[in-house]
Design goal:
alpha/beta, TIM Barrel, 24% helix, 40 strands, 19 helices, HEX_bac_N, 774 residues, Immunoglobulin-like
Length: 774
């Protein structure tokens, strides 16, 4: 056999293997990219009913074999049969395969052998073989696997995802599904965010009210009656079973109990362990709340008792104790806490938090565990026992690693998977800053500021899917996949071998595998987006629209139709912007080189009515503002629509470049949302508006952007509409009016003046109309 290095190329890492045939790229669609490959001659065919041989009495090998059979059944549609003894597919223990997660996979004309010293190595070898057995979209057919030897091991030990089950509870069976698909791309750490202001999800037998009270919340009101309670929790028996299931798949579950902030659910359940011993409701607002855990001796003892039960359930080395966003107002205003700070010889609340972290870190160390927390635990001085998960950029990781502490990189916003994946209007709930597949793939987990000799302290990286706006299991999956594959390759594969173009080829079959396994996978990276050249008014005046088509990820051939039919692999290929008379609807999608759709087709309507209409996703921020979030109508809505783009600090959105020489009338659809965002110390950034009526108004102005930029220009008030009583009015309603005679394109601002104590209003859609309006 000929030894070849896996090279990085524009098209496929595999395509540049010396002396490899072109077809080899499709024969080995492996994600993440393996460390090295040796090519052989010939191949081996795996048919339905093939046996998987395992060493007699080897429970780890038996588990890996079952996992392989399960994935191949779902992803290829053929059955493999694990059994003790020898077989054409053989799992082998081999101490010469160095590394806790390393494996060697050999394919020749006689069969397939997976060798590893560890259980995890056998699992990862099995997952690589599962990918080799589903290299294309064929289903239920035998597979010819190219002869090769793969020697593989990960670059980083921590390759993870965070699942926030505190803000929105996820049924335990949905956590199982995510673990299965993490294993498929060799992700090995699931960080479970189990507690927050909005819910406590871990059963503590010594303190039953943590789940009896703390696991349930009443949603906030947007006027009128509130919806049903939201909540749920996991029993210790459920979690022990989950931990065992994950371990069989090479996945470690790291639990998080968030302290001292994000503790309102704790305070609701046991007010005696909060700072002022008051009794708040379990939180229903997103953001930063004031409630802190009380670090008095009885509070420290309380948390140690919780830790005792936590480590009985979770055998992970690391226990995450939060430490983030703990504004210290309650500690600063409590005479008892201030007396404790003084008695300990400390000066600040940050130092008290550091002291508290050290108490728990020492306690965990005594039980053979290690504490990890968010990078705020650095602020009062980092205890020797602590490791850091850096989320506020990379600064915390650089500082901690250079001090000799282990770190995990999870910087916001890049690795925050609750950020949207594209700027398409049909993206689901989340934060509006787009974190694309490519941006995540190209992230380097070792920051430049870490000294070379300290780089060993970088354990790895993880993507976080916070669930303020991720409500259903499908929305969580949509946020994870396919970006989980980018995180997997970024943390598994060697830095100098990664190549995004190669990854795009190899991730396509993995997306197909995930979908065959029943997972929701976002397609925004591969979907066609449309850009109208010039303004909408220009197109209407010229009676023609010029539209450019593109995909976010540079992959596939865009094909389109103009006759209302869905595009196929035989439809015209897009090569240049299309110039059309208004009224034509473009439908387009990208196709790979085998003629397969890479994403569902998207449409662009060039009719005059469509060009005069803007939905919430097409609105922009008012001057000086910034759209932050895409949120549902109610905080716990399980439907994917409607959703609204909003600015937390300003109830104003803008219709850019409205053609006011053409439009004579308008209808604006309005939505009333619950105002449930805890802004903490950021309340000063909020723009309060003076209401002239009891419930406020919607004030529509033209030339608002020009007036903001040039004080000599006066905005033109188009209309002012009194908002109805939230207690009796529906949550969605509309206003209509007419425009004065104006010229050209002008920005329109839609400003709501409702009091900050009232619900939050936003625009759902604006429809402009031509001609006379009665």
């Amino acid at each position: 056999m000929e030894k070849l290095a896996v090279r990085r190329t524009r098209h496929l890492a595999w395509a540049a293997l010396l002396a490899a045939p072109a077809a080899f790229a499709q024969d080995l669609p492996i994600t993440p990219l393996p460390a090295s490959v040796t090519l052989g001659t010939g191949d081996f065919t795996v048919r339905d009913g093939a046996a998987i041989g395992i060493p007699e009495g080897d429970a780890g090998a038996a588990s890996a074999a079952r996992l392989l059979a399960t994935h191949v059944k779902a992803e290829r549609g053929i059955t493999l049969a694990p059994r003790p003894g020898a077989a054409a597919i053989q799992l082998i223990r081999d101490a010469s395969v160095a590394g806790d997660e390393a494996y060697r996979l050999t394919v020749d004309a006689k069969g397939v052998r997976i060798a590893a010293a560890s259980d995890s190595g056998l699992v990862y070898g099995a997952m690589t073989l599962a990918q080799l057995l589903s290299p294309d979209r064929a289903y239920g057919k035998p597979v010819r696997v190219r002869a090769a030897t793969i020697e593989d091991a990960p670059r980083f030990h921590w390759r993870g995802l965070l699942m926030d089950v505190a803000r929105h509870f996820q049924p335990i069976e949905e956590v199982y599904k995510v673990i299965d698909q993490m294993a498929s791309v060799k992700l090995n750490t699931l960080h479970l965010h189990l507690t927050d202001d909005q819910g406590w999800r871990f059963e503590v037998k010594r303190y039953p009210k943590l789940t009896e009270v703390g696991a349930w919340r009443t949603p906030p009101s947007s006027g009128g009656p509130v919806g049903p309670r939201h909540g749920g929790f996991y029993t210790q028996a459920q979690l022990k079973a989950l931990v065992a299931y994950a371990a069989e798949r090479g996945v470690t579950i790291v639990p998080e109990i968030d302290l001292p902030g994000h503790a309102q659910a704790l305070a609701a359940a046991y007010p005696e362990f909060s700072v002022f011993a008051d009794s708040p409701e379990v939180g229903h607002d997103w953001g930063v709340m004031p409630y802190l855990f009380n670090p008095a001796p009885e509070g420290i003892a309380f948390i140690k008792n919780v830790i005792d039960e936590l480590i009985e359930v979770f055998p992970s080395t690391y226990i995450h104790l939060g430490g983030d966003e703990a504004i210290k107002d309650q500690w600063e205003r409590s005479p008892k806490v201030q007396a404790q700070i003084k008695a300990l010889g400390l000066q600040t609340g940050n130092q008290l938090q550091s002291w508290m972290i050290d108490q728990f870190g020492t306690y965990l160390a005594g039980k053979g565990r290690r504490l990890i927390g968010w990078d705020e635990i650095l602020e009062g001085g980092l205890p020797a026992s602590a490791s850091v998960m850096s989320w506020r950029g990379e600064k915390g990781a650089v500082e901690a690693a250079n001090q000799g502490h282990d770190v995990v990189l999870s910087p916001a916003p890049l690795l925050y998977l609750d950020q949207l994946q594209s700027n398409l209007g049909d993206e689901l709930n989340g934060r509006l800053a787009v974190q694309s597949l490519e941006k995540i793939y190209k992230y380097e987990p070792v920051p430049a500021g870490i000294n070379a000799e300290k780089a060993k302290h970088v354990l790895g990286a993880q993507g976080n899917a916070w669930s303020e706006y991720l409500i259903t299991p499908q929305q969580v999956q949509h946020a994870y996949f396919p970006r989980a594959a980018a995180i997997a390759e970024m943390t598994w594969s060697a830095k100098d071998r990664r190549d995004f173009a190669s990854f795009l080829d190899r991730v396509q079959p993995q997306i197909a595998r995930w979908r065959r396994s029943g997972m929701e996978v976002a397609d925004g990276a591969f979907a066609v987006g449309y850009t109208l050249q010039g303004s909408r008014g220009d197109a209407l005046r010229a009676n023609k629209a010029t539209v450019a088509l593109a995909t976010q990820a540079p992959y596939g051939t865009i094909r389109y139709t103009l006759d209302g039919r869905e595009p196929t692999a035989k439809s015209p290929a897009y090569s240049a912007p299309l110039t059309l008379k208004p009224g034509v609807t473009i439908r387009a999608a990208a196709f790979d080189k085998s003629g397969n759709l890479t994403a569902a087709a998207r449409a662009f309507d060039t009719s005059r009515a469509a060009l005069l209409t803007r939905t919430t996703s097409e609105m922009t921020a008012c001057p000086g503002g910034s759209l932050y979030l895409r949120v549902p109508l109610t905080p716990d809505a399980t439907a994917n629509a409607p959703v609204y783009n909003i600015d937390l600090f300003n109830t104003c959105t803008a219709y850019p470049a409205a053609p006011l020489d053409i439009a004579r009338g308008f209808t604006v659809s309005v939505a009333r949302l619950a105002r449930h965002w805890g802004l903490a110390h950021e309340t000063g950034k909020r723009r309060d508006q003076y209401p002239a009526t009891m419930h406020g108004e919607l004030v529509i102005t033209a030339r608002c952007t020009a007036a903001a930029n040039d004080k000599t220009i006066k905005p033109i008030v188009i209309g002012s509409f009194a908002l109805p009583d939230p207690a009796t009015a529906p949550t969605q309603f509309s206003f209509s009016g007419t425009f004065p005679q104006m010229q050209g394109d002008e920005d329109l601002c839609f400003q709501f003046t409702s009091p900050v104590s009232a619900p939050f209003y936003t625009v759902e859609k604006v429809v402009l109309t031509e001609g006379a309006t009665k």
